[in-house]
Amino acid sequence: MGKLYLLRHGETEWSLDGRHTGRTDIDLTPAGERQARAAKAVLAAVRGDGPLRVLTSPRRRALRTAELAGLRVDETTEELAEWDYGDYEGITTDRIRETVPGWTVWSHPIPGGESAGDVAARADRVLGKLDGLLGDSDVVVVGHGHFSRVLVARRLGLPAPAGVHFGLEPASVSALGDERGVPQLRHLNVPSM
């Protein structure tokens, strides 16, 4: 059985500023490009060789990260897009909390965007597809912070809000496998710098 590797996109201006970046298609910063190049060595160290399939979000920041990390993309799918932040797109948590005290993406509604349940359902669809691919190769998913954290939670059988417990920095690598059929977190948030 192959392993699932998650590569978060490199730094963008909005990730640097803490702004929620879902649908907005922005580029990597120069630091983000360096991080993405460095991710190639991290993936090689934690993964090794063998058959590999690469799936990515259609956002430029994910596609560019895959390219700079030396990955050949097999499929681009909207299913791997970041959480849809609706009316909170481009806004920081601190600013949202000025009108919604204690707000988090994990615990509160997102006007005009996806709920945690919506994101969990999407993650479950992705995992169902990946299960079919993992039989004969490893899979690298190049995507985004919040969605990848939900993907980790759902792979481990946890509810979407449990993603709050898994940190993923820009261009970090994570690996999920199993131990005798039980999902297992092998590596989390391995930095690319």
Number of domains: 1
CATH architect. name: 3-Layer(aba) Sandwich
Beta-strand residue fraction: 15-25%
Strand order of the largest sheet: 3-2-4-1-5-6
Structural shape = globular
C-alpha end-to-end distance? 29 Å
Instruction: Identify low-pLDDT runs.
Output: none
Task: Report Rg.
Answer: 16 Å
Based on helices, strands and strand pairing, what is the structural class? alpha/beta
What is the CATH top level name?
Alpha Beta
Question: Count the helices. How many?
Answer: 6
β-strand number: 6
CATH H-tier superfamily = Phosphoglycerate mutase-like
* Percent in helix: 25-40%
Q: Kindly report the CATH topology.
A: Rossmann fold
Largest sheet: 6 strands, mixed
The average pLDDT value, as a whole number, equals 96
Element pattern in H and E: EHHEHEHHEHEE
Describe this structure in words.
This protein has six helices and six strands. The chain has 193 residues and is an alpha/beta fold. It has a single domain, classed as Phosphoglycerate mutase-like (Rossmann fold, 3-Layer(aba) Sandwich). It has a six-stranded mixed β-sheet with strand order 3-2-4-1-5-6, with helices on both faces. Helix 3 links the parallel strand 2 and strand 3. Helix 2 crosses helix 3 and helix 5 packs across helix 6. It is globular and about 50 Å long. 39% of the residues are buried.
